[in-house]
Specification:
Blueprint (H helix, E strand, L loop, with lengths): L11 E3 L17 H18 L6 H12 L8 E3 L1 H12 L1 E4 L2 E6 L2 E7 L4 H5 L6 E5 L2 E2 L5 H8 L6 E8 L4 E8 L1 E4 L3 E6 L4 E6 L6 H14 L4 E5 L5 E3 H9 L7 E6 L7 E4 L11 E5 L6 H11 L4 E4 L7 E7 L5 E10 L16 H7 L19 E4 L5 E4 L7 E2 L7 H8 L3 H20 L3 H7 L4 H13 L6 H33 L4 H6 L3 H8 L9
Parallel strand pairs: 12-13, 13-17, 17-18, 18-23
Antiparallel strand pairs: 1-14, 2-20, 3-10, 4-5, 5-6, 6-7, 6-8, 8-9, 11-12, 15-16, 15-20, 19-20, 21-22
Helix pairs in contact: 7-8, 11-14, 12-14
């Protein structure tokens, strides 16, 4: 059956930001009215007789969270303010002026104007400091205050004053707010003449459209092989996971199916469209932060032997949620079904100990296996399934990669550099003095910058001294171990200022051991898919 019910059901899968709220078991339908009356009586008695004044809104929210506490970790209550933010994330846009920013030394610093947004169109640049909003000082603003003053309804005007350090001048801007896209395709680029790379951060309403745009662009640049990076992608919309898997899986093959207590939530989603990317050698990168919709894509690719999965075992979320909007614009996301990969695998891991559910995924001991190839899963509790070609895969705890490659660990010193936000303020200061010269030398040529620009010993010595001023004590052993990584981070921050995410990923992929291993595996990816050296579009 090749039809979708998704048009009548807004189904969401997510395992990231909003999944930390815990819930209690809902009452049975047999005595629902009696229990509602009981709850109402308790609330009324408390409100009327409790020794101190009570906040009934707070009590009701606490009761909702408690009421559902016996259910799975992904059935959650979302307060009104968080629900609005969640809707923006899934919709993929918001109204505002279109900048990424950081507060540096109490000053709003533009990290980057968002492509196509009103700020970019007016010439606002990375490194600009917003010092006034509506002629009043904006120094000392918090992140929330910045959003409050700069976001607003499309078509409204906000006046800001920008200080540009490279020319040491202030400029006034009257910015008309517009709809600002929240891109879910973080970056796409050609790593070399044949290999393309695409990073997808979540599955929102426009993700499949963004991905097609990225694929078509890379195809025009000579794309022959693709690395699809779903690491740390917490999921999103089931419809988008299905659409994206369909881009790479041919015929009318099953991509995913769902089963719930109510029959209307039972679905079979089959590949239905033909794309020129169904024969391109494919590798999908995953890790412990890859969840739900990411696991649907990875599971379909693996079960049909369409490509290789490389990285770490994924999060393990195999449940489908539907949002129900409440009268005050809050919402509950209730699990309505389980999803299964084409081979019949359920991906959801055990959640009996809900207290440690989100922590355990980062502390779990991976099964002992070869350092690269996933050829030994020593866990008798795991159910064995077969891919289309007869390869063994496992259910009940995420997607096990075909090649297990852990991300290289950084030292505590390097971790402190990131946690204390040392990189960006240092590079921002460096670019205030050198940005014009760098732009003149490299213009728009990211490849030339990648080849020729070097982080000098003098610059890195200044960075270490700057880090110490930010209370990050120098640890020589850690520094020596991570020196190449630290230099790559500094260079990536510079590149991002000129080429945004393309610059960032172009530099850091050179130091990414998981990515570097993946591009060695294309011969095997072609072999298991049943084709070799097939041209895109054939």
């Amino acid at each position: 059956m090749k039809h979708l019910k998704l048009s009548t059901i807004f189904v969401m899968l997510t395992a990231g930001v909003l999944l930390g709220i815990q819930i209690q078991k809902v009452m049975s339908s047999d005595n629902l009215r009696e229990n509602i009356k009981k709850f109402n009586d308790v609330l009324n008695f408390t409100n009327k007789y409790y020794v101190d004044k009570v906040d009934t809104d707070q009590l009701v929210e606490a009761a909702i969270n408690g009421m559902l506490d016996e259910l799975d970790p992904h059935t959650v209550y979302i307060p009104p303010k968080r629900q609005k933010s969640s809707e923006e994330e899934f919709r993929g846009d918001f109204d505002g002026i279109g900048i990424e920013f950081q507060i540096v030394n109490d000053t709003i610093t533009v990290v980057s104007p968002i492509s196509g947004g009103p700020s970019e169109k007016l010439g606002i640049m990375g490194g600009d400091r917003i010092v006034k909003i509506e002629k009043k000082s904006a120094i000392g603003f918090s992140n929330d205050e910045v959003r409050k003053h700069l976001r607003g309804e499309k078509g409204t005007i906000v006046n800001i004053t920008v200080y540009r350090p490279s020319v040491q001048k202030e400029y006034p801007f009257a910015i008309e707010r517009d709809i600002i896209p929240i891109f879910s395709v973080d970056s796409y680029l050609m790593f070399n003449d044949e290999v393309g790379y695409i990073s997808v951060s979540r599955f929102a309403e426009k993700t499949s459209h963004e991905l097609i745009t990225a694929l078509n662009s890379l195809r025009n640049k000579g794309l022959k092989k693709l690395v699809l990076d779903l690491r740390n992608n917490p999921g999103g919309l089931l419809s988008q996971a299905y659409s994206i898997a369909d881009m790479f899986i041919d015929g009318d093959k099953l991509i995913v199916y769902t089963e719930g207590r109510r029959s209307e939530f039972n679905e079979k989603l089959l590949a239905s469209k033909t794309y020129p990317y169904e024969k391109i050698p494919l590798i999908v990168l995953v890790n412990r932060g890859s969840a739900s919709a990411s696991e649907i894509v990875a599971g379909a690719v693996q079960d049909w032997d369409r490509g290789l999965i490389v990285g770490e075992t994924t999060f393990g979320k195999g449940l489908v949620q539907r949002p129900f909007i409440l009268s005050d614009n809050s919402a509950v996301r209730i699990t309505i079904a389980k999803y299964f990969t084409p081979s019949g695998r359920i991906i959801q891991r055990d959640y009996e100990n809900k207290k440690d559910y989100y922590v355990s995924v980062h502390n779990r001991d991976e099964e002992k296996k070869d350092s690269t190839k996933n050829n030994a899963v020593n866990d008798s509790s795991k159910v064995v399934y077969k891919t289309n070609a007869g390869r063994e895969v496992f259910g009940g705890g995420g997607i096990n990669p075909d090649y297990d490659v852990k991300q290289a660990k950084i030292s505590e010193y390097s971790g402190n550099l990131r946690r204390n936000n040392v990189y960006y303020p240092f590079i921002r200061s460096y670019l205030d003095e050198n940005s014009i010269d760098i732009r003149a030398k490299y213009n728009d040529d990211i490849k030339k910058f990648d080849r020729e620009f070097l982080i000098t010993e003098e610059l890195i010595a200044k960075f270490v001294k700057f880090a110490e001023s930010k209370d990050v004590d120098f640890v020589k052993e850690d520094f020596d171990k991570d020196k190449d990584y630290i230099k790559a981070m500094l260079k990536a921050y510079i590149a991002r200022d000129y080429w945004k995410n393309e610059g960032w990923y172009t530099i850091l992929l050179n130091e990414d051991n998981v990515f570097k291993k993946s591009i060695e595996l294309f011969n095997e990816a072609e072999k298991i898919a049943g084709f070799e050296k097939v041209k895109v579009g054939e």
